[in-house]
Amino acid sequence: MTEPAGGPIFKVSYVVQGSEHPGTILNTRRRPCVGDRLVLGDQAFLVVEVLDLIPARGEFVFLHVTLQSEGRQAVSPATARSA
Amino acid sequence: MDLLEILRDVDLLEGLSEGDLRQVARLCRERRFRAGETITRQGEPGNELYIICDGLVEILVTPASAAAPPRAVVNLGRGQLFGEMALVDLGPRSATVRAIAENTLVQAIGREEFQALCDAEPRLGYAVMRNMAADLSFKLRHSHLSGR
């Protein structure tokens, strides 16, 4: 998926509910929305909650996103993407 | 994507001018890692910080008790930095960092060169140190939210 250029940059703290997964922090140009599906490493997740974590600073918006695991993704490591 | 474009999306460098970003870009050394490759090891000396441009890394901490296995505390992706603690406190690496996506791309910045730039350009140095503190705070918030 190509990210839009320009506009705000979202620094996201992804937390996986009910799982031993440690969660992920990354920057993305696309604001996550409830119902989105994403792949982090080799695992697929469903976005179930999106909250502003702290006030924005400059172009950066700081979010907390809760994920539900959908299990291992059938992708080779070479095609795994971070968001 | 050119390096300046990548650095504009890194919150460590928020508030820096184009000229400042060019100065930082001159210090960057690109490194690529395969999935499973170790980038830094807990306990070893560290003299670089790293900015992730693409891919994903896993931060593993081995508790003081030698019997306990390493534990993943967070994964970091695009725009994140690691290795900054050794840069600030001069101590050994506090964690082992391993690439978990193929072709994980990072930019490494040497401690001495980076500190020399911050000393020579105090406004740049202030912004970077403020942003580094904010990043450590964000990681702490993530840790609290994830129960780790």
Structure characterization notes:
The complex is a heterodimer of chains A (83) and B (148). Chain A has strands at 9-16, 24-28, 37-40, 43-57, 60-72. Chain A is mainly beta and 83 residues long. Mean pLDDT of chain A is 85; it is low at 75-83. By secondary structure, chain B is α+β, with helices and mostly antiparallel strands. Chain B has helices spanning 3-8, 18-27, 84-89, 111-120, 122-146; strands at 29-33, 38-40, 48-54, 57-61, 71-76, 81-82, 96-99, 104-110. Chain B starts with a helix and ends with a helix. In chain B, helix 4 crosses helix 5. Chain B has one domain: Jelly Rolls, CATH 2.60.120.10. Chain B is built from 5 helices and 8 strands, in the order H-H-E-E-E-E-E-E-H-E-E-H-H. Chain B has a 4-stranded antiparallel sheet with strand order 1-8-3-6. The interface between A and B is medium-sized, with 30 and 33 residues.
What structural class results from the helix and strand content of chain B? alpha+beta
User: Could you describe the largest sheet of chain A, including whether it forms a barrel?
Assistant: 5 strands, mixed
Our estimate of the beta-strand percent of chain B is 25-35%
Determine and state the CATH class of chain B: Mainly Beta
Mean pLDDT of chain B: 93
Give me the CATH fold name of chain B.
Jelly Rolls
Tell me the number of strands of chain B.
8
As a percent range, the share of helical residues of chain B equals 25-40%
Q: Helical segment tally of chain A?
A: 0
Spatial separation of the terminal alpha carbons of chain A: 8 Å
Q: What overall geometry of chain A do the principal axes of the alpha carbons give? A: globular
